[in-house]
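User: Hey, my collaborator sent me this sequence without any context and asked if I could get a structure. I don't really work with proteins. Can you help?
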Amino acid sequence: MPIASVDPATGRTLETFEPMDAAAVEERVAKAARAFREHRETDFATRAALMRAAADLLDGERDTIARTMTAEMGKTFASARAEAAKCAKAMRWYADHAEELLADEHPDPADVADSGAERAVVRYRPLGVVLAVMPWNFPLWQVVRFAAPALMAGNTGLLKHASNVPRTALYLGDLFHRAGFADGCFQTLLVGSGAVEDVLRDPRVAAATLTGSEGAGRAVAAAAGDAIKPTVLELGGSDPFVVMSSAAAELDDAVSTAVTARVQNNGQSCIAAKRFIVHEDVYDAFAERFVRAMERLTVGDPMDDSTDVGPVATEQGRADLEELVEDALSRGAAALCGGGRPAALPDGWFYEPTVLAGVTDAMRIHREEAFGPVATLYRVPDLDAAVALANDTPFGLSSNVWTRDADEQRRFARDLEAGGVFFNGMTASHPALPFGGVKRSGYGRELSAQGIRAFCNVTTVWFGR
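Assistant: No problem. I've predicted the 3D structure and written it out in structure-token form, which is a compact way to encode the shape of the chain:
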């Protein structure tokens, strides 16, 4: 079956590609393995110069690749440009910091003397070829946040990107080569999901990283576990956005952030806030302002600077969103705004910014991730109820809490079951901060020191007396 690039704003097919056959995949796996033997011997200064060259290319081509991302998955052009800029920033961050993050560690000789050692060294060595299975929602950033640390650590990469963003995938496969990385250091495999397991099981592939659905994560983790290969998984999220009464004076800022947190990337972000849990003392004021702000958003052409929310990326994605909303409404939830397709946009896969209230645990949306511009609104009486409801989800990616009370901050930081707790601001990923989740949101961490060490052989080097 051809791999297609389809414009979600119109439903029009832009370009189709034939998947690579087994011989083409074999050629790229072999090339990645050969490139690893060369790339691992380069020093950090050489890798950093190459990574900065890739960042420079990306900066110079920002508008071009932003148009490609917008055309393939519907994010607004402004957000696509910002994504490209963020990728270049991360490349430079790892170029600047990789050597120190992977520097040899020297335990105090006195601490290891009883092992019979005169001294010992802990070293971080690259693992080899790493397979990256990546999603469409941040088609540049999700890849770069793996590729930059992996290449700086001395690994090589194979990218199996989402099948609806083939143009972006091919761009990425070409970017690092044009920057000067040796042939085979980073390559795109234009294949369907059915080809992933064979690549992962290939003995020349050392590890895998996946960002995507729970189903894809389970499949990759199972195959990797059977082959005894390490993985990092970043899966779904249904992040809470908690507003306590101590934030009453900052309610306008909380509302503004809440809207951005819900509809960023057209609502299609694993770390987007999705469940809005508000203390009863400020619930009515928050709800009124939040709904009004969601209603004011402009839905339309993602290339138009005035557009706030573009289309959902795929027709099936919109259908899944509609099913969740219809299930909630049929079971007694109320749509305070939105709740359907915008009548003025009959073409493409648009969905109205929607706020649902009266959500209960009998509704699918209480447990499942809403991947689109749909928010659920909850009223809670106190801190205990806020913590309990925030944790009442199978996911645990990140969380947002608005409170100025130090005791409340300590409680949320201690008890929220999530990979991140962001106070009085919006969850975001940053090169210097570890990123990942718990529960069904996955395991392992990307970015920061943890991210670059994820695909290293942490080696103990012991010297006897």
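In plain terms: The chain has a mean pLDDT of 97. You can pass these tokens on to your collaborator as they are.
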